[in-house]
Amino acid sequence: MTETREKRLRPTAADSDQQLWKAVVARDKTQDGIFYYSVASTGVYCRPSCSARLANRENVRFHTTCEEAETAGFRPCKRCKPNAASLDETHAAIVAAACRLIEQADELPTLADLAGASGLSPFHFHRVFKASTGVTPKAYAVAHRHARVRHNLKQSGSVTEAIHESGFNSSGRFYACSDEVLGMIPSDFRKGGNNAELRFAIGECSLGAILVAASERGVAAILLGNDPTDLERDLRDQFPNAKLVGGDKSFAEIVAKVVSFVEAPGKGLNLPLDVQGTAFQHRVWQALQQIPPGTTVSYSELAERIGKPSAVRAVASACAANTIAIAIPCHRVVRTDGSLSGYRWGVERKRALLDKERKS
Ligand SMILES: [Zn+2]
Question: Which residue, of 2, 164, 317, 329, has the fewest CB within 10 Å?
Answer without folding.
Answer: 2
